[in-house]
């Protein structure tokens, strides 16, 4: 009987909180024989205006043992914020009544239904950990079996995430009655106000003026099987003793069902309106053949291959080869880039562990071990997608030195969106697990960037009309690359190839190896030998060539901080990661491809798809036509900007990209997501920053400054958000926190980080039907986690909507997005794009100036660079403090322009 025992089913009503999946995981793992299903509070499948709504809702509820009304942004006074919750409380005996637990917003909704009010706290308590004063059996005057879900629970601390509180008349109780030891007023229903709500738990918060605020933490409805908890039982900082409260609640729910003779209705899976908490895999959503399935679409594999259009044939069934050489002494990544001639290329990707060789104490700095340089990008397939389009564009410039300029739109409906297309492409080009491969992070695959706006689209946030058609996803399929192992001092020159179509030799690798072994450290020579000295530049520069810098206005930024805090106080967010942008205009520096803007315009037209036929092609120059700069004064190139930034702020996730019409120069210290070929995922949210100074020069000093309630709360909120994101793919019980609130040392700052790890479902559980359709990969986690929680706040969706409003719908673009790779082995590594500057090739401004010789007015085109900076605003923030933090983060990237003149 026990082996075939049917699982209980719990319905979770999701109010779009960023901690919901943590609750469903807690319920699943803690209550054991339970499946949790999720239904949004505004599900289109249950329209309250429909004539049969009540009958359909009751039929849905009849399938569950109990319901949990979850947390979320907003207030129960706003019907749209609680949606279906209101209809749960209205259930009556004989008309669908069942046990319910409300958490946070769900708790407040119950309090309102019970006659209480929901008011603002004197100051919000988001991310604060407090002792919960609950009614132990002797104090309350009732015990087990009386609905007391705190029965036999020892004292514990719990995490709070709220700025609103339930008022059942507690502040009308005298101090003497409140403090009465046994059966005191704090444990009794307050007659005349909320006679049906029995308080079960409190937090007594002492405020600055010495006044104690009585904050309701738990209630029991005396007529219906309804309970509520204001605190968050699922938070990583809520002590495990609090789990007993959830266990007790479920025991009470089962007891009530049994006493009332309530039987759960069993239905077929497809008849249930709610869905399981774990998202289906990207591969399972495809409506096109993938992997082994493709062989069923044609009579033979050969015929299927012939019928594929050009981009489908690229890179399929790859094989791998490599050559390793010793890295010459003193040679840096920048030297290798320059030796390969990539520093002046209009297509380049460098992912560098720039602090790998930095001098630091053993316990300081997060060090990267490897750096990645993509090669031969003119001959690499490029995938571009503009958020909101129904299609992605695949491009190929040349093949074996022959310019072909192929471009094809791929409509996304059958792929389920852009990430389905990427997943399908990657799956058919993976290196088999049975092949012996070197233990390197990247052997080949997609490399590129994803903008913040793509992340907004992924969480269903509408973007205002955008006045451009730049890519929000730009990935290049890298088959040739150079990997530098800084620990062993080795350079791996490697390539992916197909034995069916590619030349079977290693000539390219040997050629690169020969060049690298004789490379000298360029950094020992004059750093910018193509530039005049600063003194000479000062004498020769024309007025029109001066760099213009437009930073955020102090008062405006402080006003935005106050606006954030008003939303937080109103319960609409727990934390808002406010940002602003600095704009730098300066004379054109790099040679810009003249076709860049035309490429984006052309992508809006239906292109033709010529096939590979060398006889029909004319050999052209493999490089694009370049537009020279117009100023007579040399201007430091974007590569010079990168070298300067990496020397000033060596970071473990530095990057230099010129791809898809954008140039990115980044010294990011923050890893967003990494995953290995065995499905182990890790995220490192970074919140809490203090700049190094004479007074803060050691890790111990930084820890004293950062281990305070404000900084820890900032980090904790994002940690619980990241756990939620990972749980959505990894599933219940497969996420853990390995390093909580840890302070790390970097070149110029100390940062507080937390490491959250997850494990993807194993092949045995995801391949139940014998194919790869249900397989989860690291891409599933990436797609489910954008935009990075450390750049949004929590709850993510509502916070991003508010930030769009506060930031006046200004695009963050690459800033707050991610940069990284997904390898053909299943590995991947992505960093958050912060401490960075970027430039779009098609963004120019015209500047008026005077000619050097005749003094006549002249016009000159300048390029525009953007630097984003900001910080997490909480209820404990001050406008002045947030403004200072923003300018502190801005200083590093901005200083490179001053350094180079």
TrEMBL record:
Claim: Metal-binding is one of the keywords in the record: no
Catalysed reaction equations from the record: chorismate + L-glutamine = 4-amino-4-deoxychorismate + L-glutamate
One Pfam short name: Anth_synt_I_N
Protein name: aminodeoxychorismate synthase
Organism, scientific name: Pseudoneurospora amorphoporcata
Compositionally skewed regions (Polar residues) per UniProt: 543-552, 604-615
Boundaries of every Anthranilate synthase component I N-terminal domain copy: 344-487
Pathway(s) this gene product operates in, as recorded in its UniProt entry: Cofactor biosynthesis; tetrahydrofolate biosynthesis; 4-aminobenzoate from chorismate: step 1/2
CDD domains assigned to the protein according to its UniProt record, in alphabetical order: GATase1_Anthranilate_Synthase
Sorted UniProt keywords: Folate biosynthesis, Glutamine amidotransferase, Transferase
GO molecular function: 4-amino-4-deoxychorismate synthase activity
EC code: 2.6.1.85
Domain Glutamine amidotransferase, residue spans: 12-168, 215-252
GO cellular-component term (any): cytoplasm
């Amino acid at each position: 009987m026990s082996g075939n025992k049917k699982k209980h089913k719990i319905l979770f009503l999701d109010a779009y909180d960023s901690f919901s999946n943590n609750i469903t995981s807690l319920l699943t793992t803690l209550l054991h024989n339970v499946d949790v299903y999720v239904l949004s509070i505004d599900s289109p499948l249950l329209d309250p205006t429909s004539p049969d709504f009540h009958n359909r809702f009751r039929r849905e509820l009849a399938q569950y043992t109990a319901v949990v009304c979850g947390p979320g942004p907003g207030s129960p006074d706003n019907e749209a914020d609680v949606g279906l919750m209101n209809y749960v409380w209205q259930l009556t005996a004989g008309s669908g009544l069942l046990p319910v637990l409300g958490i946070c917003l769900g708790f407040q909704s119950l309090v309102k239904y019970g006659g209480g009010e929901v008011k603002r706290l004197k100051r919000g308590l988001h991310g604060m950990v407090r002792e919960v004063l609950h009614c132990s059996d002797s104090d309350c005057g009732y015990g087990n079996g009386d609905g007391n879900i705190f029965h036999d629970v020892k004292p514990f601390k719990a995490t709070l995430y709220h700025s609103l509180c339930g008022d059942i008349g507690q502040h009308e109780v005298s101090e003497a009655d409140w403090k009465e030891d046994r059966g005191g007023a704090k444990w009794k229903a307050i007659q005349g106000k909320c006679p049906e709500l029995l308080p079960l738990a409190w937090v007594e918060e002492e405020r600055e003026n010495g006044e104690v605020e009585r904050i309701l933490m738990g209630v029991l409805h005396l007529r219906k099987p309804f309970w509520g908890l204001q605190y968050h039982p699922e938070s990583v900082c809520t002590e495990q003793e609090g789990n007993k409260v959830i266990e007790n609640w479920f025991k009470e729910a089962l007891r009530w069902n049994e006493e009332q003779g309530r039987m759960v209705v069993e239905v077929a899976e497809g008849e249930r309106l709610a869905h399981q908490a774990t998202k289906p895999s990207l591969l399972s959503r495809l409506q096109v053949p993938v992997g082994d399935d493709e062989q069923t679409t044609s009579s033979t594999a050969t015929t299927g291959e012939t019928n594929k259009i050009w981009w489908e044939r690229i890179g399929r069934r790859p094989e791998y080869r490599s050559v390793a050489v010793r890295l010459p002494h003193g040679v840096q990544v920048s030297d290798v880039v320059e030796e390969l001639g990539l520093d002046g290329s209009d297509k380049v990707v460098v992912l560098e562990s720039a602090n790998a060789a930095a001098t630091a104490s053993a316990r300081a700095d997060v060090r990267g071990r490897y750096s990645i340089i993509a090669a031969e990008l003119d001959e690499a397939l490029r995938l571009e997608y503009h958020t909101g389009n129904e299609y992605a564009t695949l491009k190929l410039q040349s093949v074996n030195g022959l310019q072909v300029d192929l471009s094809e739109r791929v409509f996304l409906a059958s792929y389920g969106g852009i990430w389905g297309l990427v997943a399908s492409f990657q799956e058919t080009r993976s290196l088999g697990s049975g092949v012996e491969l070197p233990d390197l992070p990247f052997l080949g695959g997609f490399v590129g960037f994803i903008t913040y706006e793509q992340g907004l689209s992924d969480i269903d946030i509408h973007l205002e009309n955008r006045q451009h058609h730049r890519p929000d996803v730009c990935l290049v399929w890298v088959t040739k690359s150079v990997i530098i192992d800084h620990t062993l001092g080795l350079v791996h020159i490697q390539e992916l190839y197909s034995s069916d179509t590619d030349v079977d030799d290693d000539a390219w690798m040997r050629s690169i190896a020969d060049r690298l072994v004789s490379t000298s450290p360029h950094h020992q020579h004059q750093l910018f030998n193509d530039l005049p000295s600063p003194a000479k530049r000062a004498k020769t520069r024309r007025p029109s060539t001066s760099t213009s810098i437009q930073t955020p206005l102090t008062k405006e930024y402080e006003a935005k901080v106050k606006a954030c805090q008003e939303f937080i106080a109103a319960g609409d967010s727990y934390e808002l990661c406010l940002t602003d942008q600095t704009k730098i205009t300066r004379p054109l520096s790099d040679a810009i491809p003249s076709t860049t803007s035309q490429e984006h315009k052309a992508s809006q037209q239906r292109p033709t798809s010529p096939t590979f036929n060398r006889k029909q092609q004319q050999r052209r120059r493999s490089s694009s036509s370049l537009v020279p700069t117009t100023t007579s004064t040399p201007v430091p190139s974007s590569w010079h900007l990168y070298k300067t930034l990496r020397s000033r702020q060596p970071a473990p996730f530095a990057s230099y990209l010129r791809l898809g019409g954008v140039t990115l120069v980044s010294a990011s210290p923050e890893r967003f997501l990494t995953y290995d070929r065995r499905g182990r995922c890790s995220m490192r949210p970074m919140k809490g920053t203090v700049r190094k100074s004479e007074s803060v020069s050691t890790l111990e000093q930084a820890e004293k400054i950062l281990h305070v309630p404000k900084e820890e709360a900032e980090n904790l909120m994002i940690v619980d958000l990241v756990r939620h994101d990972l749980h959505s793919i990894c599933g219940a019980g497969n996420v853990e926190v390995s390093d909580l609130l840890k302070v790390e040392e970097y070149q110029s700052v100390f940062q507080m980080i937390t490491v959250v790890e997850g494990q993807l479902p194993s092949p045995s559980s995801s391949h139940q039907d014998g194919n790869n359709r249900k397989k989860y990969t690291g891409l599933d986690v990436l797609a489910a986690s954008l935009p990075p929680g450390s750049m949004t706040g929590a709850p993510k969706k509502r916070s991003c909507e508010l930030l769009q409003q506060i930031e006046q719908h200004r695009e963050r673009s690459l800033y707050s997005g991610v940069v990284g790779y997904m390898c053909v082995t299943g590995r991947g590594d992505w960093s958050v794009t912060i401490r960075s500057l970027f430039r779009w090739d098609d963004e120019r401004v015209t500047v008026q100036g005077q000619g050097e010789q005749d003094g006549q007015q002249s016009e000159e085109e300048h390029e525009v660079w953007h630097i984003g900076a900001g910080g997490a605003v909480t209820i404990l923030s001050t406008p002045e403090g947030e403004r200072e933090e923003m300018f502190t983060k801005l200083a590093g990237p901005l200083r490179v322009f001053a350094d180079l003149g």
